[in-house]
Amino acid sequence: MSLKKARILVIDDDSDVLTAVRLLLRPEVKEVVTEKNPEQLPALITSSEFDLVLLDMNFNASINTGNEGIYWLKRIKEIKPATAVVMITAYGDIDLAVRSLKEGAADFVVKPWHNEKLLDTIATVIKGAGTVKTNEQMNKGYPVGATGHIMLGESEVMQEIFYKLSKIAPTDANILILGENGTGKDLIAAAIHQQSLRANGPYIKVDVGALTESLFESELFGHKKGAFTDARDDRAGRFETADGGTLFLDEIGNINLQQQAKLLTVLQNRQVTRLGANQAIQIDIRLICATNLPLQELANENKFRKDLIYRINTVEIVVPPLRKRKQDIPLLANHFAKIYAAKYFKPNTSFAASAIEKLQQYSFPGNVRELQYTVERAIIMTESELIEAKDLLFSPLENPLTETEDIAELKLSTLEKNTIMKVIDKHNGNISRAAKELGLTRTALYRRLSKYEL
Asked: Is residue 153 within 8 Å of 162, Cβ to Cβ?
């Protein structure tokens, strides 16, 4: 169906939003109906046929407060399952909006939107394209532009991150990226910049956690000649250098409260004053921050100012550890194998099934970074075109097991077997007492003894 023939229903409790959407859509579609009260939704979609519903995520209604959009989405799908629904959301509700896709929404748009983008989204959904994917590689990977790297992942959690990136990257929202070391937070920051409207501007990365207190202001805000002993020339800080582009502050959770106060002042005023200078300089940046601290720990006001968290955290992205996305391990391992086989002039290398199984059983405390180094080591050391399980050696820096322990010790079945043996030994072979301590019947314990050939 073409946009000109479409009938659209818009549900939002904000009169200004309804007026703006009505004025935008009226010349583009056959009919646009607006409604402030979501309680009228069932009657509206029952009495009329709409090709698309634009539905706000939050209302002032008392029904399921905070998740009203999900509630009304479900009601629409119950009454008219074929009706396409596009959710309207604010930055802070993007996680909820992504969840709405699983409940049947076709797409979502973020307030404030660009009119052209909203029209494109509506047109795409009405034409039957369903969920908009702005990146051709989104099914398995997300490009990171000039860096030459790609974020890979076909797991559900990574697909959600890719989709979230496609929505927030074109905005100027401040982003906080959370995740363990080695999960790829820097790749996500670079991807946001490369997919943003500032892609042609500078991308400046600063490891603020590594800056000493004396260097913090000079590095970030710049200095005038003579401001301190080694200040031999005027120097622009990272904020100035990033003007018109993106500033990525890595390990933001490691700066002290005094540094946080100085950073907050700059972000509030959108201007910096170089050390030794009196005149403030206006800055225009998009801010991305990252930390390996959990948000709950970051919210401890003895360590981090809450007003700064709100300033840097318009939208947060939580990057999962590799152990929670094991489906992606074969994809990542083969990607790294291809890179290092070319680097070290080795033939095309593949993984035996036993090698993939070993990789997926390992917990990877060092995450993707550890997997990368593990594959690189295997490529260097193996003489074969097929990497076997024995060729994979995990780093003793990350691996909690000793080299003589087998990874199978982590299996639940092995833990159960070892526990049974220890309890039976403790009771000198008395099956009744052992079964009682294990919380099993004698019959259940005998079945396990038979299972493990004990």
From this structure: yes
